[in-house]
Amino acid sequence: MPIPDTTPDKPRYSQTTKEVCNTFRILADCAQKGIDPATILDEEGKPKIRKLEMENYLLAVREILGTDEPLTPTLLNARLNYLFQNGKLKIHYPAGQKFCLAIIPCTQYGFPIKQDAIESGLFLRELAIDERDEKGELIEKNKISEKDNQLYEYLPDEVRKCLFKIESYDEKPEFKLTDDDRKRAVKAYKGAYKNAQTVFNQAKNRSKN
Question: Which residue range is the domain that position 125 belongs to?
Answer without folding.
Answer: 1-209
